[in-house]
Structure formats: C-alpha cells, structure tokens
Amino acid sequence: MWASRGQLQGTERLESIGLEELDAAAALRRRFDTKYLVPRDALGELLERLRPTHHVLEIDGQREFGYSTTYFDTPELTAFRDHVQGRRRRLKARVRRYVDSGDCFFELKLRGPRNCTLKRRLAHDPALGGKLTAESAAALASWVEAAYRRPPPEPLSPVLEVDFRRTTLAVLDRGERLTIDVDIAMRTPSGDGFGHLDSDLALVESKSPRGPALATRELNLLGARRLEGMSKYCLGVVLALGRGRGNTLRPVLRHCTGRSRA
Hints:
This protein has 262 residues and is of the alpha+beta class. The chain is 22% helix and 37% strand. The protein has 7 helices and 15 strands. The strands form 2 sheets. The chain has an 8-stranded antiparallel barrel, surrounded by 4 helices. A two-stranded antiparallel sheet has the order 1-2. Strand 1 (2-3) and strand 2 (7-8) form a beta hairpin. The longest helix is centred in the middle third of the chain and has 15 residues, at 134-148. Mean pLDDT is 92; it is low at 1-5.
C-alpha cells in the first residue's frame, strides 16, 4: 500500500506544491473543517479522483510527513469536556512538532462564528518539548480574551501526546486543503496509557475558507463516513486516559485499540 521515499501511494501522480506556495494560497487561519473516516485501500481511488484539481505538498522530495503533538488541559479536562458537550466557546491548546523539518509551534484552535475554526500559532523552541512557556501562556490568554472575552481555563499542563503521518493536498485557486492522516497513535506523557486508530483506516479532513470543499463530492461518492465532533485529542483522552465517552466519538472508538491508566 505504501510507496517508498516518504509518500502515500497515488500521490506520485499529483502535481506538487512547495510549502511557501501552499501557505500563500491556503493558510486557512479561519476555516470550515469536515472530517471523514476512510479505508486506506480506498485512498488510491480518492487521490485519482482529486488529481485534476489538487496539488500535493512536497518538501525535499518527500510527500508524507511526521507530526508529534502535545495537548494541554486542566486537571478536570475542561477543554475535552467543552468539546464533547458541543460548547461553542471551546479551545484546544497544543505544541506541535513537525518531525521531518524540526519546526515547532505553540498552537491554539478556537471555535468562531458559524462554527468555523480559528487557528493561532507562535514559534516554539523544540528543545522545550511539550512545555508551555511564559510567552505561549501570554499569547494564549490574549487570543482567548480577544475571541471569547474571558480568560482561558487554568491551570494547563500536558495531558496527551499524539503522533501521526500526514499527506497534504491543496486546491490553489479556492484556498482549500485536504489532509490525510495515518498511523495515528496517542499516549499519556508518562507512557502508562495509549491508544491508536486501526492501521487500515485513515482520517481525512477537508478545510475550506467558505464552506463545503471541492473534495466533499468525491468523498461522498466513495462512501466515506463523515464524523461529527471528531477530535484526535478527545479520542486520545478516552483511549489513553480512560476519561469520559462522548457519543460523537463512538463511530471511531469501535475502530480503535487502547489501554488507559485509569
């Protein structure tokens, strides 16, 4: 199923795009997201359907990249509970490391008007790992206050680590992205709890600045399962921490394995 040289089989037939051009065309700091669960053996057909309209991100000859993310939450898991309860004013705070390039950012995702996603980020020293710096904490407080007119939940500490491999596609003239995540694995920072999505499945997410993305039609024709309220962080909390079971996660949980520290 997987080609060598760091790429998902089928992406070799797509025209490539560099990171600077991708960010210029589809930075998507404000966007509408839709997630789908797709069998990995259907990805080749999906990529073929998208070939006339989508480019694939390529850096130094590589088209698939590793991501390692540390999520922060309160001891009561306020961010997790806000998400599974569908609260509009919710957030996810994380430090994300781009494994292949070494780049690292503190990132905040907020819920904006019309259920769009607002993303903010700040360069982060990779040597600090999953630690929340004073600069990041100040930026977090400023961003949450500007969006919600309230302070962020406190105290925040690292509660979950999530690793995966990602392929990124883009429609340049529409400012859209499509990401394909595979080998999704979660663990607690102490390593005493873990979880992973079944290896024969991929998590596909369309990201558009204006609503339904161009790829939506092809995903629907392939019978991809649309996931409402899906979050890798929330999935990991259930699997690795054994804390809570949101109804929106059930369609994915049946395709996962995990052992919690609880």
